[in-house]
Amino acid sequence: MQQSIITLPLLLLLFSSLFPAPSHAWGVHGHLIVCQIAQARTHAHSSVFFFDLLFAFFI
């Protein structure tokens, strides 16, 4: 009984590592939204830096 309690999680871990599910990360839009929120909460001097940082990725 004790061995089956340990074996089942290991088998599930092995199975899940063989067939990984696709991950759906934030993507470009999610990161831009977070940066825009951060930019709105900063001082005017810092917003220039954030603007340059945001659009440096696209150049």
In this structure, how is the largest beta sheet organized? none
- What does the oligomeric state look like here? single chain
How far apart are the termini?
61 Å
Low-confidence stretches: none
Average pLDDT taken over every residue: 78
Radius of gyration: 22 Å
Shape: elongated
Number of domains: 1
Strand content: under 5%
Keywords: Signal
Signal peptide: 1-25
Can you put this structure into words, describing what you see?
The protein has 59 residues and is mainly α. The protein has one domain (2-56). It contains three helices and no strands. It has helices at residues 2-18, 27-40, 44-56. The model has no long low-confidence stretch (mean pLDDT 78).
Secondary structure blueprint with pairings:
Elements: H1 2-18, H2 27-40, H3 44-56
Helix pairs in contact: 2-3
Fill in the keyword field for this structure.
59 residues, 75% helix, signal
In short:
The protein has helices spanning 2-18, 27-40, 44-56.
